[in-house]
Amino acid sequence: MPKSSAPSRDRIVAGAADMISRRGLSATSIREMAKHAKAPLGSTYHYFPQGKQQLATEAVRYTGDWVARSLRRELEAGPAAGLSAFLDLWRRIVVESDFHAGCPVLAVAIEEPPADEVPPALAAAAEVFELWESLLAASLREHGAEAEQAAQVATLVVAAVEGTVAMCRAKRSTQPLDHTAEQLQSLIAAATRA
User: Fold this and answer.
1) What's this model's pTM, rounded to 2 decimal places?
2) Which of 121, 103, 119 is nearest to 158 (CA)?
3) DSSP per-residue letters across 52-98
4) Is residue 158 helix, strand or coil?
5) 137-to-75, 143, 160, 161 alpha-carbon distances in Å
6) CA distances from 159 to 54, 59, 82 (A)
7) Is Transcription set as a keyword in this record (predicted)?
C-alpha cells in the first residue's frame, strides 16, 4: 500500500494498514503500529483516543478507499480492465513485500471477534467488501450482465482475489493469481456477452 509522507494521522493510518496486512490485527499492538509509521505513541493516541480498534477501523477504510479509487478508474474501460487492475494491485503488494503482506481488510475480517460483539474494524471490513463488489457489479451491468448475475460474479471476484492473495503468501508464488486471473476473465467475458 502507498505510504503517506504526511507526518500526521494519514501516515499513522497508512502504517497501520501495512502492519495489519503483514501480521494481522491480533498480533499487532498500537505501539507497534505507531513505531512502524514512525510516529510518536502520544500522537497515535491523540488521533485515535479509542485505541487499536479505532486505528484498525481507519486502516481498513483507508485500504478500501485506496482500492476503490483504482477500481473506479480502471472500470471506466470495462469490467475486464477493472479485474486486471484489481489483480495487478494485489500482485504488486505480495511481490514487493516478498510475500509478507496481503490485504489488511481480509486480515481484519478473519479475526475472531469478541462474543456478542461486532467490532468497528470488522464492520468496516464488511463495508469495504460491499463497496468493491458494488463497483464491480455496476460495471458488469453496464456491460450487459443481468443484475443478479452481476452481483454474484462481483462477489465471486472479490472472494477469489482475496483468497488468492492469501494463497500467494502461503505458497510464496504468484501462480495462484495467474490461475485465478484466467478463470475470472473467462467468467467476466461470458457474463458480459449475455
Assistant:
1) 0.91
2) 103
3) HHHHHHHHHHHHHHHHHHHHHHHHTT-HHHHHHHHHHHHHHHHHHTT
4) helix
5) 10, 10, 15, 15
6) 25, 20, 15
7) yes
